[in-house]
Amino acid sequence: NAGVTQTPKFRILKIGQSMTLQCTQDMNHNYMYWYRQDPGMGLKLIYYSVGAGITDKGEVPNGYNVSRSTTEDFPLRLELAAPSQTSVYFCASSSNRPGTAYTGELFFGEGSRLTVL
Amino acid sequence: AQSVSQHNHHVILSEAASLELGCNYSYGGTVNLFWYVQYPGQHLQLLLKYFSGDPLVKGIKGFEAEFIKSKFSFNLRKPSVQWSDTAEYFCAVRHNFNKFYFGSGTKLNVKP
């Protein structure tokens, strides 16, 4: 069972470039999330999704876009990269469906370290 | 603004010392509480969680946490730390339609 898989693990971008961070989960979780982690700041929620076709902004959505066309995939798009987007990005998933597989916590991917120069 | 506060940003302990990391939150209503650990270079992993019932919850690796509703607190404890506990620890609150909010983290450095 792979859990939450993110790609790429590392990427260097030039200012103004665009890229997509990929995230996929195989746990049939309905919720998916993107967080960014900056030193001393903890994790900040960028976007989240409650299911295929439904997304919503989190605490720090500016400069990012997401889509959720399937239950499994939740890509994060960076348009016009800026140095302020240098960070470690974590994708996560969760389920809020009561049942035998319900555990209620977030499951994280391995992270993607992005540097914008 | 609603928040999750971790007041200890950096803690240094010797092996076998006792640990207590503070976590306070300001969200009202029903919340679920979590502690996650992040070892150097790794992703976050769940240590323990509180949903309901006994306010003293036990997690993996000898960690425990106590939920005190009146104080909006969920402090993490371990009676005797080991060098392998060196990591960053995050408190998190699940609130408002399954959104998770995190504290700023506490870096624990255990000296052998």
CATH fold-level name of chain A: Immunoglobulin-like
Beta strand count of chain A? 11
- Can you give the helix content of chain B as a percent range? under 10%
CATH architecture verdict of chain A: Sandwich
Low-confidence stretches of chain A: none
Globally, the shape of chain A reads globular
Structural class of chain A: mainly beta
Order of helix and strand elements from N to C terminus of chain B: EEEEEEEEEEEE
Q: Using CB atoms under 8 Å apart, which protein chain pair has the greatest interface?
A: A-B, 23 and 25 residues
Instruction: Quickly give the CATH architecture of chain B.
Output: Sandwich
CATH hierarchy, class of chain A: Mainly Beta
Major sheet size, sense and barrel closure of chain B: 6 strands, mixed
CATH class bucket of chain B: Mainly Beta
Instruction: Tell me the distance between the termini of chain A.
Output: 36 Å
Secondary-structure-derived class of chain B: mainly beta
The sequence of SSEs of chain A as H and E is EEEEEEEEEEE
- β content of chain A, as a range? over 45%
A few lines on this structure:
By secondary structure, chain A is an all-beta fold. Chain A has a single domain (4-116), classed as Immunoglobulins (Immunoglobulin-like), CATH 2.60.40. Chain A has strands spanning 4-7, 10-13, 19-25, 31-38, 42-51, 54-57, 64-66, 76-78, 87-94, 107-108, 112-116.
